[in-house]
Design goal:
The chain is α+β, with helices and mostly antiparallel strands. It is built from eight helices and 20 strands.
């Protein structure tokens, strides 16, 4: 049975109180006697204790704590782009032109908790959301390794919810994913790190991602629709760079984002008759009147679970505020 691990502080008391780890049973927490300061330390040393926790040990109410990201900010934050055909098409692109896995990074300092505010910087006006399934490594990969589809449990500890918050008026006109996606608070993660048993990894394609803004559904798709699957991405990344226990890989988002391409005729006109600078000025100007982009006081709610409830990564809820 999957184990819901949370990282938390007391909701009252000093802000610098030592974070703790626990296992969630309904709305009560079994506090783990573990002094792991990072996700890497936790997954290296504490997984057996987490899996051994029982409902009878859950004596702390969830209402008494502030949830932190289960992925600590020292870990690598690696992302896949255009990894769902529906998102490729809404971006005005042809999936046939993407026979490769698009990889980029976000600054790990953008990681924030599952209920913390997302701060929109003053210069950002086109703020967007992206629900994504997050993979958390259980061990170091410091050399090329071919990960098999049915052996994910050998290299992954569990799954979590990621919101790849993006400043489209920085990312797209400047062509800079890192700058557009790495502002502090642009990476809500959690609420839990769901530890899967070996046989449960076969269920990941049936996980359904849903994102709402102010109660209105914006994104809804199955994780199994992704183009490059977790085993392929892990194999490719391990041949490219070192990965470490506790590192986070966000696997891309489906259709439903605020940013999307105009129709075929405007795209043809923009491609052939106006400069790139003018094209992006028009994009930003149009976006300023698009109610899909996030505004201060908007509330995003994200969930990832199988339709039968067998796997449930919880509910992430973040409010947008002005800097």
């Amino acid at each position: 049975m999957a184990t819901s691990v949370i990282h938390f502080q007391p909701s009252t008391g000093p802000a610098n109180a030592t974070p703790q780890w626990g296992v969630l049973f309904d709305r009560r927490i079994a506090v783990l006697p573990i002094q792991a300061t990072t996700t890497g330390e936790f997954v290296r040393h504490a997984l057996p204790q987490a899996r051994a926790a029982t409902h009878a040990q859950a004596t702390l109410s969830l209402d008494e704590v502030r949830l932190l990201s289960p992925v600590t900010s020292n870990q690598q934050f690696i992302c896949q782009g255009v990894n769902y055909e529906s998102h490729v098409r809404e971006s005005g692109l042809d999936p046939k032109n993407f026979p490769f896995n698009t990889i980029f990074t976000k600054a790990s300092s953008c990681i924030t908790g599952p209920s913390d505010d997302v701060i929109r910087p003053r210069h950002v006006h086109l703020l967007d959301y992206e629900i994504e399934l997050g993979l958390v490594l259980s061990e170091d990969l410091t050399g090329a390794r071919e990960v098999k589809a049915d052996r994910l449990h050998e290299v992954l500890a569990g799954l979590t919810i990621v919101n790849d918050v993006s400043a489209r008026d920085v990312q797209l006109p400047q062509g800079q994913f890192y700058k557009g996606k790495s502002h502090r608070t642009f990476g809500p993660v959690g609420p839990c790190l769901l530890l899967l048993e070996p046989h449960e990894w076969a269920l990941w394609p049936g996980l359904r991602m849903k994102l709402t803004v102010n109660g209105s559904e914006r994104q809804n798709d199955l994780c199994g629709s992704m183009l490059f699957k977790p085993h392929q991405t892990l194999s490719e990344l391990s041949a490219l760079q070192d990965l470490h226990a506790g590192d986070l890989i966000a696997t891309g988002t489906p259709a439903g984002c605020a940013a999307r391409a105009p129709g075929k005729l405007p795209m043809f006109f923009a491609r052939h008759f106006i400069s790139d600078a003018t094209k992006w000025k028009l994009f930003v100007r149009k976006g300023l009147n698009d109610p899909m982009y996030l505004q201060p006081n908007d509330v995003m709610e994200l969930s990832i679970r199988t339709d039968d409830g067998r796997l449930d990564l919880g509910l992430q809820r973040n409010k947008v505020v002005s800097a």
